[in-house]
Design goal:
This protein has 281 residues and is α/β, with parallel strands linked by helices. The longest helix is centred in the last third of the chain and has 17 residues. The radius of gyration is 17 Å and the shape is globular.
Length: 281
């Protein structure tokens, strides 16, 4: 029996996930594989490197730094979240990412991206963490309209959440028998059609398959929620979700708001800890 961890994205809603993950690490709960999407990949890689507290620490430290996340960065570089600062300067120099621990942890780690030419999900498996692998993390978290297309080994990539926001089906079919799924929207959430479609169609007009994927994204997401619900009812999954809509948007510079979302994640995980441990048995 193999146990997996599936991490939805959601930009700064991902701090809920960070709170959950820190509690799981504190209780020495291990997984055979982890798959993260967007913020789920960017924050979830710290689970494999076993760096409890790192994600909330650097978010609090740099949330007001224009190099980290700002409209100014978007205008100047094309990336709302600074590509070089977020994905290379911080892990290399300012809050060191433990590459050795990441490599030595036997848990498999996957990040989901969307190929803009095909419109399909790409599931990238990591064996280590270097500059190129960090670019895969960046690609997974590069939201349409708020980031440049990331070019890696001939592929043009953007946010994995466009094509597969909750990759439970991928995990069940290819990697793990049972999975814990961490969502960043409360139960009962229904995704609606994007209000940015007209802009997406204009900006990405060279990529019709990507536009098609963006157009049906809400339907695919709601189908994935139904899949998760069915998997949980059949005992294959355990879902950890916020008790209500999180009080945060895609971008947040207020320390107290960041900490509140993180605390909600911690409290939710602690409330479910006995269920989590029973499921992992």
């Amino acid at each position: 029996m193999k146990y997996g961890l599936v991490l939805e994205g959601g930009a700064m809603r991902g701090l809920f996930t960070v709170g959950v993950l820190d509690v799981l690490m504190e209780n020495n709960i291990k997984f055979d594989a982890i798959t993260g999407v967007s913020a789920g990949a960017a924050f979830g890689c710290n689970y494999k490197s076993e760096q409890n507290g790192r994600a909330i620490r650097y978010n609090l430290r740099f949330c007001r730094d224009k190099r980290y996340c700002s409209v100014e960065s978007l205008i100047r570089t094309g990336d709302m979240f600074g590509a070089e600062f977020c994905y290379h300067t911080i892990p290399d120099k300012l809050d060191i990412f433990d590459r050795d621990a990441f490599k030595n942890n036997p848990a498999e780690f996957y990040a989901v991206c969307t190929d803009v030419e095909t419109g399909r999900a790409v599931y990238h498996k990591f064996n280590h963490m270097d500059y190129t692998e960090l670019e895969w993390i960046r690609a997974s978290a590069s939201m349409p309209l708020a980031a440049r297309i990331v070019n890696i080994n001939g592929r043009k990539l953007l946010d994995g959440g466009v094509s597969d926001s909750i990759p439970l089906e991928f995990m069940e079919k290819n990697v793990c028998d049972k999975n814990i799924v961490i969502l960043t929207q409360p139960r009962g959430y229904v995704k609606k059609k994007s209000r940015s479609l007209s802009m997406i169609k204009s900006i990405y007009r060279k990529y019709p398959n990507f536009i098609k994927t963006c157009t049906i994204r809400h339907n695919v997401y709601n189908h994935e929620l139904a899949y998760v619900d069915n998997s949980e009812k059949n005992g294959r999954s355990l879902v950890i979700a916020p008790p209500e809509k999180l009080p945060i948007g895609h971008i947040e510079h207020n320390h107290e708001v960041l900490l509140e979302v993180y605390r909600i994640g911690r409290n939710t995980a602690n409330d479910m800890l006995s269920d989590i441990k029973n499921f992992m048995k």
